[in-house]
Each structure stands twice: as structure tokens, then as C-alpha cells.
Amino acid sequence: MNYLVNIGLEVHVELLTQSKLFCGCSIKFGMPPNTQTCPVCLGLPGVLPVINEKAVEYAIYTALALHCKINQLCRFARKNYYYPDLPKNYQISQYEEPLARNGYLEFEVENKLKKIEIERIHLEEDAGKLIHGETKGNIQEKELSFVDYNRTGIPLMEIVSSPTISSPQEAYQYLTDLKRILRYLRVSDCNMEEGSLRCDANISLAPEGERMGTKTELKNMNSFKEIREGLSAEIKRQSYLLDKGEKIIQETRLWDAEKRRTRSMRSKEEAHDYRYFPEPDLLPLEIDKRRQQKVKAKIPEMPQERCQRFIIKYGLPPYDAGVLTESRNLADYFEECLESFPYYKQVSNWIMGEFLRLVKKENVAIDKVKVTPAQTGELLNYLKKGTISGKLAKLIFQEMFKTGKEAEEIIETGGLKQITDETSLEKVVGEVLKENPQGVNDFKAGKEKALGYLVGQIMKKTKGKANPQLVNRFLREKISNLPQ
Amino acid sequence: MELYKLSAYELHNLIKGKEVSVEEVVTSLLQRIKKVEERVKAFLSFYQKEALNEARKWDKKISGGEEVGPLAGIPIAIKDNLCLDSAETSCASNILKGFYPPYSATVLNKLNKAGTILLGKTNMDEFAMGSSTENSAFQITRNPWNLETAPGGSSGGSAAAVASGEVPFALGSDTGGSIRQPAALCGVVGLKPTYGRVSRYGLVAFASSLDQIGPIAKTVRDCAYLLQAISGKDELDSTSLDYPVSDYIQCLIPDLQGMKIGLPKEYFITGIEEEVKKKVITATKVIQELGAQIEEISLPHTKYAVATYYLIATAEASSNLARYDGVGYGYRTQERTNLIDMYKRSRQEGFGDEVKRRIMLGTYVLSKGYHDDYYGKAQRVRTLIKNDFDKAFKDFDAIITPTSPTVAFNLGEKTEDPLKMYLSDVFTISANLAGIPGISIPCGFNKNGLPIGLQILGKPFDEKTILRIAYAYEQNTEWHKRRPGI
To answer: Are A336 and A360 within one domain?
Structure first.
């Protein structure tokens, strides 16, 4: 039977603030356990939370970029449950009055435009991390559990979609586009491996034409691909049951990445009663129109718009524009290169080719690349003028990429300027022809390949500095002038 | 001269005039403590050595010509729910026994700056839950006026310490009357400031939307000095307000010309002892003679205050006290089979009965299906109670009521009947729900020589008016000069 699939996604991202949501502790990842804590995030008696305004700004910023309505007055609430990674045994979150509601995300999936509503965006604090089954060093000791509170209190932004995503692929695309936007806004690095982006899904199936079915909640998926896979597995499981005429039980299920299937975690009856109530330690948060305007003014051009602009303004093929606007830093790099070298397609080729190849090879973030856009533009100028060959340009660029040196400096000190001086080049050509009679004969006999060999020999002698066009011309001239 | 008998203001004048040294003051009080503490049991901990060292430091500074502020070198006691850096802060609970916070409450940093000398921390009802200090896990504090009676609570230790002359003044905390009621029952002055006037940072929370720290002293003037020192916005407490702090000393004038004071009829009916009622009415006549105009008013939602309070306060408490779970700090059970078992046993063994009762009440109040009927409704009634006051304060500068319906009751008299105990706060609770300031001052004694308290309630952030009325009354009566014969 055919079923209508309804998927809703709850995305949690850690915000890239300097400090935690309610205290001054650093949020740096990977530090030794419990070194980034204070009485506030440890939930010691008598301490009080103080809101991090930067986190609020980031949430407003994101909400506006996702076309949400900001609540002029929002409130924090306590979500009460016991767990050792939650030192206060309640999480400060938002419940009935979130920071923003009613936005949307528009994206392309299978060549169609899809618009998914964003139901709400709110702020909350992260919990700590449990480390199980270790001992203090003595092998005979009982295995213990430990808590690392470094993550406790890191600002999380929760983005909840409406349950109108209709396929696992659509969910995948929604997440990809959402991630790209969040990274464009620079509010989160959205790194699923480090846990700075997490996603839970709810999914229900209904026979076509009927109302929404019973949903299950899906947790524990550690990449977008796993989310897609987990959702597919859950669709299969649910439709199998529905086909048999069975009912879906409302429950929370875990994705088992090893067995590649979902399994039950807890039923609706076992679900927590979080006993939410307004957080009395914090005043309601007022976000007036002026503040919204101020934040709105800082929103950069979003990836889709920028991609369109690259196609229209620079005449780039859609594929190029897509690659270049994938990240805000890359698109910025591209446009900054144009300032010193305004040849769009050439810059695009260089960035998509050499630049991204080295970025990938050296595994550096684009904003950490040493060679500046202006330097790259300068190199491309040398290339265009013929001062250096394409092959040499690549070599020089590698050096620039590694050291951040100017192209000019590398060319000078390495004596890498192209030999364009005709007399000295003529001399080298003469020598090579003398030394390679076989090659000459082969070429004369019509083997075009032999010319390449001869060019190679000249390049070898000149350490790659010979201007290839000149070499070609000279070779052909000289050979045809040779006595029969 | 017996220095322990003096008020902080009198001590200040002697120190400033170099008639006595700070060391002499501290020594006198330590001797007084030695003499009476065994019977009163007001303190949970002492800082004798540190206090003497501090005293000598002050003496050196003073002889070096340093300016002597009004609180410089004056000994003080603080309630044990105020965190003091590296000093045990137990809230009179086994679950926090041996807890040494690595930080001090903002009020203590402020006092330190003002120069007070900390003598010790005082007993209280466990986590400030109670009205007699009998819920302390460690000891029973006795009322210095009659050792068979309770000092009131929850700041009973602080009130008893002041009344018995162990310290000139002290800090308490007030969630539903915990400063004012023990002050009344011990015959001293106690003030609960407006919610947001004093930082709560470092005060171990009972009910966050109701808790306030405030002074307990022998005189209104001492109260004013202490309030002056601890008031103000604190960046560490988002609920503290950036509202200008008045000069609480300048407002102390013994004249009430032009003032309009309301006398709410709802406070003179159920369960009030006849002698209490009589003394309070007599006091209003004195106040009238000082120039104030007194009229009967109505605060119609008063009868819902106790019920409302016990829904909101317990709901917040159930969440605030969830952190005492045996995981990170505080008491952890010795025997446990798993995590849930550890939680259960640690809390079962660590908390006392009243605390458990309130946690269960609060958990129930917030539970699915009951949330709106209890917590939601209580919040709406809270607003109505606040509106009652707002309305009254449009026409009146202050409101006068009895502080407590009874004088000090016998130890053990109400411990078996929590509801009876809860009614001990019937007149003080509304001020916490409405967030307004209130002060209790002595206004007489019953035939058994037990003190009676008068409560003056004021507009939000208008502590100066209630201080002025209290001061005028005090200056024209002799009650505050009487001391227990302990």
C-alpha cells in the first residue's frame, strides 16, 4: 500500500559563542574533563544563571534568516528530570514562549522547490557527558562511571520543523541546506562528529487521503546519511506493520547503526513528565523591534541568493556557482580574488581546481588558508601575462599555499621567471635538437607525439621556465629548417 | 560597660570615638556567647579566631587614622543558607553537611567591604522550610524570652542570637515570613526588602521567586544601616533590579505628618490571639498620634495567600532541591545498587521530613494533569493578591498588620501538625507573593512576657517609608529597650 510520509526534524546546534549560556566558562571543544566549569554550570547551591546576550543575538539572527517571527517577550522554563549529566537535575530551556516561531526554509530537492515550515526556534543549555566503564587505574577496581561537565551549559539552539517533510531524501536536503545557512551565519560550526549539530526525527505514515498517522520519535543518528537511512528503515518497518493491519505504537526508537535498523527505547507511557514551569531565576527576555532591526541588518546574503547572483553577474555555470557558494568563506575568497584579477571564469577554475585540491589535501579550513585572495589574484595575473607557465603557476601556488609568501618573491628567489628571451631560448632548442636526432626524425616521420618529448627535454633543461608557446614555435621552425 | 547590650549604632559611636577597641567589642560578644549559647543554641558554627584577627586589623587601621564607616568593626551573624567562601554552608540539612562553597554570597562580599566582622552562622529550619527552627537537622534553638518556646523561623537562629545579645545584628532570609516572624517572636526588628532589592546570589534557594535576604537587628536604625550595605543591583543576579538605592538613614525622622496608613480588616480575624490584636491596635493609636492618618482597608484575596504560597513555594522548591542527588557534592548514601537507588537513598537519608513533604507537594503541583489546576491557578491568584496591594497603595503609603497571629509557641507544640505551623505565616506570606517590603518591630508583650510584633508593609522599593514609620514608632515607645533576662 502507498502511504503518505510525514517527517519532522528537531535540530540542536551548539552556538559559537565565546562562553556558556548562563556563565562565563569557555565552550572550547576537546579540553581535559571538568576544566571548563564554574559554580554556575556545576549547579552548586545558591548560584544563579545570567543570560549570555551573544547567544540571544545568534538565535535572533538565525530566526530572522529563517523568516521567523520573533516573540517580543519570551521566557525561559525549567525542564525537570534526573540524570547525572545534568547537575541541577533540571535543564533551563524554553517551553511555551520560545524565542521565535513560524519561519520557513526553502530548498531544492530532486529539481523541485520545497518549502518546509519552521515551527519554533528556542535557546537552551546543553548537558554534560557521561563516560562509562572506566576505573581509576587499578584493574581490580569496579568499573565506574564519570561525568565531564565541560559541555554542561553550552548554548544550544533548537530548530523544530513542521512534520511536513515527505521523504528521507527531503529530510537530508533540508538538513544540508539548514547546515549551510547556519554556517553562512557563522552561528555554529555544525560538526556532527563533535556533537555541535544533533538531530532527532519524528515520523508517521498515513494511508493516502487519510489524516496523520501515529508517530514514532527517532534518535541516535550520527550523520545526515544515517538520518536518511534511519528514516528509510523506519518507513519500511511502519509500512510493513500497517500492511499487516497492525497499529503503530507511539514510542521513542533508537537507530542502531551497526544492525542498520531501529529499535524501541521507551514507550509513550514511560515518557518523562518534565514538569515545566517558568524559570524564576531569569527575567522574561524582551526583544524589541529596534534590536531585531539591528540584528537583521547584519544578516549576510544567503547561499541561494548568492548562487543566483554568481550565475547572473559573473556568468558562471550553475555548477561552478553552486560549488563556490557552498561555504560563505569560499564565496568570499572567490569575490576577493576578483578584486585583483577580474576574470570570473579563470578565477572560478583556479579556485575549484588548485585551491580546493590543496585545501582538501592539506585539510585546512578556508578561513585558515595562508595565501590571501589578493595574492592568488596576483599569481593569476602573472599567468595571464605569460610571465610564468601554467605548470609553474601550480608549483608556485603550492609554495604560496604552504608559506603565504607573495608569488613575486617565489618567482624571484627561485629564478622561476619564464624564459621569454628568444635568443637564449633558441640556443637551448638548438642543443636539444642536436642531442635528440631520433626525436627529430620521428617528428619528421609524422609522429606528433615526438614533439611533446622534445618540449619535455627543453623544459627539463630550463627547469620548466621556458615559455611553452615560444618553445613550440621555435621547435617547429627549427625542425622544418633542418637540412633533409 | 556591657558592650554586648548595645546596638550596632552605639558600638559604632564608641569605636569611632576611640572609647572602645573593636577587639573589646568582639571579646565582649564572644564572652556573651560563651555564657548564653549553651541554652539558646542559635549558632551552627563560629569564627572566633578569625573574628579576633579581624578585630585587631580594624583596630590597627583605626589607630592609623582610617575612616570608620558605620559598619566597620561591628560583629554580625549570618544565616547558614548564605554561602561563605570555604566555610561550611549546610542550610541545617544533613544533605549539605560538610559542603564548603568556593564562593561567597554577594551580600557577604558587600558586608566584608563595609567592614563587619563575622562571628558565625546561625541555625535555621532545614532549607528555610519551617516557622520554628525546629526543622533543623542539627539542633533546637530556643527563644531567649522563654527557653521552652520556639524562636520562630526559619531565621530563628539569627533572631535568637540578636535577642540574646550574642550579636548586635544578623542576616536572615525571608520566603514567606522567615525574617519577620522570628523577629516578632524574639522581640527584635526584622526587615524583608522588596523582591529584587538585594542580590540573591549565594543564598541557597528555597523558592526563587519569593526569597529575599534581609536584616534582623535590635533597632530600626541598625536595620537601616544593614539594608543600606546589602542593597543594589548585582550582575550575578538577573532578578536584582537596577533601581536607585535610597538613603535609608536620612529617612529616619520621628514624625509621620501627612502619612496615610491602611489597616486591612482581613488581618484581624481568624486565629489571632486577643493580646496580639490588642497590642497592634494600641500601636496604631501611637502611630496616629505621631501624625499619620489610619483607615481600615480591605485586601480581599488575603484568605487565599497561604494556599497560593504553598503551591508556588513548593513547586519551585521541588525543582531547586533536585540538585541534591548525591552525584556531585553533598551527602551520598553508603549503600546503593544502581543510579536510581542512589538518588532515592541519598535523598531519603539526607533530607528531613518537612523538606520531603514540600518536595512531594511541589512535584505533585507541577505534574501533568494537575499543573494548570494548581500551579497555574496559584500564579493567577498571586496576581490578584498583588493587585490588592497595588490598589491599596494608590491611596495609602503603608499598611499595618500584626506580624504573627500568636506569640512564641512552645517547642514541639506544632511540629506534629504542619498545617497549624503553616498558619503561623498567614500574615507575612502575602508580602512575598506580592514582592513588597515588610518590617516587623516590637509593639508590646503578652501577660507571660513574650514579645509581640507589628508588621508594616510598603510599596515596592519604598523601604524608606516603612523604616520611617517603624523608627517613629520605636522612638516613641520603650519596647525595643527591653531585653530577655537570660
So the answer is: yes
**Domain membership flag for residue B50:** yes
A167 and A93 both lie in a single domain: yes
Query: Can you give the pLDDT at residue A469?
Result: 75
Report the pLDDT value the prediction gives residue B286, as an integer from 0 to 100.
Answer: 97
Q: Report whether pLDDT(A357) > 80.
A: yes
Inter-chain CB proximity A88 and B329 less than 8 Å: no
Number of Cβ within a 10 Å radius of residue B385: 22
Q: Does A407 lie in the same domain as A318? A: yes
- Tell me which of A413, A439, A473 is where a domain ends: A413
Query: Same domain for A354 and A469?
Result: no
Query: Which of A268, A294, A320 finishes a domain?
Result: A294
Give me the active site residues of B, please. 79, 154, 178
DSSP 8-state code for residue A19 = B
Residues A355 and A206 in one domain: no
Q: Does A82 touch chain B (CB under 8 A)?
A: yes
Residues A279 and A308 in one domain: no
Estimate the crossing angle of helix A373-385 against helix A328-340, to 10 degrees. 50
Give CA–CA dist B352/A82, Å, rounded: 20
Instruction: Count A/B contacts: CB-CB distance under 8 Å.
Output: 99
Domain of A434 in residue numbering reads as 422-481
Q: What gap in Å lies between CA B148 and CA B411, rounded to an integer?
A: 6
Contact check, Cβ <8 Å, B367/A273: yes
B132 prior amide bond cis, ω within 30: no
Verify that A397 and A433 share a domain, yes or no: no
A53 close to B (CB below 8 A)? no
CA B332 to chain centre: 30
What's the pLDDT band for A424 if we cut at 50, 70, 90? confident
In this prediction, the residues of chain B whose per-residue pLDDT falls under 70 are 1
- Smallest Cβ–Cβ distance between B323 and the set A89, A275, A277 belongs to A89
CA B183 – CA B439 distance, rounded (Å): 9
The residue of chain B nearest to residue A283, with distances taken between CA atoms, is B239
- Residue B26: which CATH number? 3.90.1300.10
Residues 104-123 of A with CB under 8 A from B: none
Q: Are residues A71 and A110 in the same domain?
A: yes
pTM: 0.90
Sign of the four-CA dihedral A326, A328, A333, A337: positive
DSSP string, B146-171: BTTB---SSTHHHHHHHHTTS-SEEE
Test A275 with B329 for CB contact under 8 angstroms: no
Over residues B221-248, the pLDDT tens digits come to: 999 999 999 999 999 999 999 999 999 9
SS3 content of chain A, % helix, strand, coil (to 5): 40, 20, 40
Q: Residue A484: pLDDT above 60?
A: no
Q: Is residue B268 part of a domain?
A: no
B194 in any annotated domain: yes
Distance from CA of B427 to the nearest CA of A (A): 24
Is the CB of residue B475 less than 8 Å from the CB of residue B254? yes
Q: What is the ipTM of this complex?
A: 0.95
The set of residues, in sequence order, having a beta carbon less than 8 Å from that of B139 and lying 6+ positions away, is B41, B44, B123
B119 backbone φψ class: left, alpha, beta (φ>0; ψ -120 to 50)? alpha
Name the residue range of residue B170's domain: 3-260
Residue B231 vs residues A434, B64, B461: alpha-carbon distances, Å? 99, 29, 11
Q: What is the pLDDT of residues B301-331, one digit of tens each?
A: 999 999 999 999 999 999 999 999 999 999 9
Nearest C-alpha neighbor of A215 from the set A281, A136, A145, A162:
A162
Residues within 8 A of A (CB atoms), B 337-366 only: 339, 343, 363, 366
Residues 6+ apart with CB under 8 A from B362: B313, B314, B315, B316, B317, B318, B319
Assess if residue B376 is contained within a domain.
no
Looking at the 3D structure of chain A, how many domains does it have? 3
Q: Is B453 left (phi over 0), alpha (psi -120 to 50) or beta?
A: beta
